[in-house]
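Input record (one chain):
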Amino acid sequence: MKILITGANGSLGGYLTRYFSQKGHQIVACGRQSESPAELLNYATYIQADINKPMELPAADVCIHTAALSDDKATLAQLLLPNVEGTKNIANATKSAKIFIHISSSSVYLPSEIPLNEDIAGKQNNRLLSPYGMSKWLSEQAIMETSQHEACFILRARGFYGTGDKMILPRLFKLVKNETLQKPGSLEINVSMTHYKNIAHAIELCLHSNQKGINIYNVADQKIYLLIEVLRKFTSKFYKKQLKEKSVPIFVLKMMAWFKIGGITGLLIRAFTQNMVLDTSKIEKELGYKAQTDLDLSLDEIAGWVEKIGGVEVLKQADKELAWKL
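The corresponding structure, as predicted from the sequence alone:
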């Protein structure tokens, strides 16, 4: 297949570019930068595309749309253009493609004590969604209104991680100060996470399914994680010892968020204090999805990558080309 991937300079887009190229597909990688990382050209043809504007794109069998502004400090007004209008622009530019894959987010849900299924989105109080969550919800509505593709898949995942991750891992390691893990509250919450390999597997199932029209699925690792244990596994692996821990009271973090100190936001506090578990039974039943890996199975590989790029301090910088430093 000829597959067009947007956001190819990002962590997920970069992973998918490598994954599907290695599967033998012809990849056209799109990004907003005028030039691609040199490594990308080993896997794909690169074209510059500004999703904020109407555009023309090469014909392809499939479009995988990962490009988005993912910034929990951005306002809804700042997010609407890239995440909603940008999605419309990509859908229109690829309307000849048979299949459209839209990477959405678990942020379209509010936290819950029970696993979240696909039907819950929109039935909760959307006014309580974060600006980012609202923009992703509106991007889904835009797809439903715009898509002319034979089949369209909206995939909602949470906490992407793996080699090339310049979002989650840098954030987690910024919680370490002087070899002490600064815990926001207790972190004793249950969360879903999604390894890049698992979202790639889900996309592959979509490509080979007989589904038509709009299809919405949650995607996550099979395991449900206790967040504090996730941090302990990462930090002990990379620092080669169990770090000391110090709890930061939640009320202090809320004050920091209110006064916009240290990059702390309401969404970040929610992520550290409330359960967010995705119910993946729908995609398992309809497409035969089965998670291919998890944190424990992939930890050595991720640690090897971090060491190769220069260690934790380099990772913390979240360099824009980190996803392609392999």
